[in-house]
Amino acid sequence: MKDRQNIILIGFMGAGKSTVGKRLATVLHWKFVDTDSIVEEIAGMTISNIFCRYGESRFRFEEYLAVKKVCTGKNCIISTGGGTVMNPENFKLLKQSGLIIYLYASLEDVLQRVGSSDRPLLKRGPEEVLSLWQSRLDTYAQAHYIVDTTNKGVEEVVKEILKLLREGVR
Ligand code: S3P
């Protein structure tokens, strides 16, 4: 962890980035930050409303600004939105600012976990969600570490991350 200041969680919607991130922050006594929450705070409206009123491209721009902001921090657990690292510039900034951990969740798990959510991209129907999920796998896999969350609760995922941190980084 020497010169890497932050721990960044990436992965598809419903992978548990925020829940795991909050717990990890508590255990490590680090600060928890969430790019989606920063976007909502700055815009003064929910992500769903940003998509609705101004479209996805506006959200992506606000998300980029949120990434730039969180990357200036130290000792933060950063939870990102599912699409954040699909912008190469975001991925580059985040990689420079810390250790990237990909929380892998199968499509089945994702659909189960986010069943009744109002996430705009999940309203597009099962085929589009499947293709979105598939199209992101290669990018997510460029993380420093991959943690498979299948059949694991929050505590178990956190434990695994702590083990990775103890054993050193590549
Ligand atoms: C998105 C994921 C959401 C949020 C926005 C777009 C995506 O975050 O950023 O709805 O592109 O996958 P979560 O992954 O926290 O749900």
Q: What is the number of beta strands?
A: 5
> Rg from C-alpha positions?
15 Å
Mean pLDDT: 93
CATH superfamily: P-loop containing nucleotide triphosphate hydrolases
N to C succession of SSEs: EHEHHHEHEHHEH
CATH topology grouping: Rossmann fold
Query: Low-confidence parts, pLDDT < 50 over ≥5 residues?
Result: none
Tell me the CATH architecture.
3-Layer(aba) Sandwich
Strand content: 5-15%
Strand arrangement, largest sheet?
A: 2-3-1-4-5
Output the CATH class name.
Alpha Beta
What would you note in describing this structure?
This protein is of the alpha/beta class and 170 residues long. The protein has a single domain (6-33, 75-167), classed as P-loop containing nucleotide triphosphate hydrolases (Rossmann fold), CATH 3.40.50.300. It is 53% helix and 14% strand. It has 8 helices and 5 strands, in the order E-H-E-H-H-H-E-H-E-H-H-E-H. The protein has helices spanning 17-28, 35-43, 47-54, 56-70, 88-97, 107-113, 126-140, 154-167, and strands at 6-10, 31-34, 76-79, 98-104, 145-148. Strands 2-3-1-4-5 form a 5-stranded parallel beta sheet. Helix 1 crosses helix 8 (154-167), helix 2 packs across helix 4 (56-70) and helix 3 packs across helix 4 (56-70). It is globular. The N and C termini lie close together (10 Å). Bound molecules: shikimate-3-phosphate.
